[in-house]
Amino acid sequence: MTEVPEILGTCDARFGAVREALAGNFRDHGELGAAVAIAVDGELVVDIWAGWIDAARTRRWERDTIVAVFSVGKAMAAACVLLLVERGQVELDAPVARYWPAFAAHGKDAVTVRALLAHRAGLPAIRAAVPEDAIYEWSTMTGLLAAEEPWWEPDSAHGYHVNTLGFLAGEVVRRVTGESLGTFFRREVAAPLDADFHFGFGPEHDHRVAEYTFGDEAEPGSQPDPRRRVPDPERQFLLGRVYLNPPGLSGIGTVNTRAWRAAEIPSANAHATARAVAHLFGALGERLLAPETLAEATAEASAGPDFVIGRTSRFGLGF
């Protein structure tokens, strides 16, 4: 049992159980530092934080602490594509190759934007070993994905594009707007909503970034650990490529570096406050996207056995 640090911020009395759950994370599970925010009908009803932002426990978590939020970035990357759909610049049922001609290689010419966002494009990984520094080179990663042969017949099945969805959706945004995903997101989404959410940022924010520490073991029901051997060599190869090609793609050994923070790796390296995440999700169907767009995007587009994670999964369009 671990001592519970002071929990700061505000919590509506109706959500006292949330505050207790955060305390339980410290008391029972050795939490280092964390924040929780919940918005209901546009009102922030929970905005609390506690603990430390460094493994040495020398710096306290503050109201403006940001941390890597990993796959939350996929939803924000999808939202950027959906904004372009609403503006008539992208069509969900148009082939990706209409906007990104090189993507048509190896029979991917008919893969639609809808299939890509629904994790049905068959591009969860790159087969050939990729140098470690390539994760910081947008054109290298997107070029390799465009040239990649699908791991399954596109749109015939789905599989979690763990680390590639952000590059794929982000390149559609870049091809249509001429701007990087991070630049487009910052101007069209984060700034208008005053959301402290970033795809790539400079050293001026480093003092308020929480170090990310990985637990010793994955929680039951979480994603497979590619470092753990599995009996099927083909599956072992797939998982290794999905999570660790290039090395550091999932943040292992890279997540706390300046290079990682500066880059745009949309599936994995977004940084934000919990407050910003709650605010952005709350604004999706109110200020950001039309309700009918959000309804279509969050309707089930893929369901059943997942080619990558080896269990049942369900996806909408990027959600």
Describe the overall structure.
About 2% of the residues have low confidence. The chain has one domain: DD-peptidase/beta-lactamase superfamily (Beta-lactamase), CATH 3.40.710.10. The protein is of the alpha+beta class. Helices cover 34% and strands 11% of the residues. The protein has a three-stranded antiparallel beta sheet with strand order 1-3-2, with helices on both faces. A three-stranded antiparallel beta sheet has the order 4-6-5. 42% of the residues are buried.
What is shown here, in short?
The chain has 319 residues and is of the alpha+beta class. Helices cover 34% and strands 11% of the residues. The protein is built from ten helices and eight strands.
- The CATH architecture: 3-Layer(aba) Sandwich
What fraction of residues sit in β-strands? 5-15%
Shape: globular
Total strands: the figure is: 8
Here the CATH topology equals Beta-lactamase
Quaternary assembly: single chain
**Cα-based radius of gyration, to the nearest Å:** 20 Å
Number of helices: 10
Low-confidence stretches: 217-222
Q: Would you tell me the overall average pLDDT? A: 94
CATH C-level name: Alpha Beta
Helix percent band: 25-40%
Number of domains: 1
- Major sheet strand order: 1-3-2
> First CA to last CA: what distance?
36 Å
Going by CATH, the homologous superfamily would be DD-peptidase/beta-lactamase superfamily
Structural class: alpha+beta
